[in-house]
C-alpha cells in the first residue's frame, strides 16, 4: 500500500491545489479592513458594491487567494463578512 500524497486544496468555482512544486501564491490583501484604509472606508460606509470592485481588481492583478478581514471595532464584522462574501461569490470572475 503506497502512501497518498496530501496537498492543500482550496475551492471557488475552480480548484486551487497547492503542491510543493508551486513556489508562489499571490494573495490579494486589499480586502482587509486592517490593511487597507480605502477598503475599510468603503465597508464602514456600507459601499459594498465598490468594495467588490476592490476584490475584482485584486483578482485581475493576479491574486489567487483573497485575504478578507472585517475585524474592526466600529463594524458589525459578522454581518459585513457575510454580506461581502455573498457578493464576491456571486461574481464568477472573483469566485473562480
For the CA atoms, what is the radius of gyration? 15 Å
- Count of helical stretches: 4
Major β-sheet annotation: 2 strands, antiparallel
Low-confidence region ranges:
none
SSE string: EEEHHEHH
Terminus-to-terminus distance: 35 Å
Structural class: alpha+beta
What count of structural domains?
1
Mean pLDDT across every amino acid position: 93
Descriptive notes:
The protein has one domain. The protein is built from 4 helices and 4 strands; from the N terminus they run E-E-E-H-H-E-H-H. It has helices at 37-44, 48-60, 77-89, 92-95; strands spanning 8-11, 15-18, 27-28, 65-66. It has a two-stranded antiparallel ribbon with strand order 1-2. Strands 3-4 form a two-stranded parallel ribbon. A hairpin with a 3-residue loop joins strand 1 and strand 2.
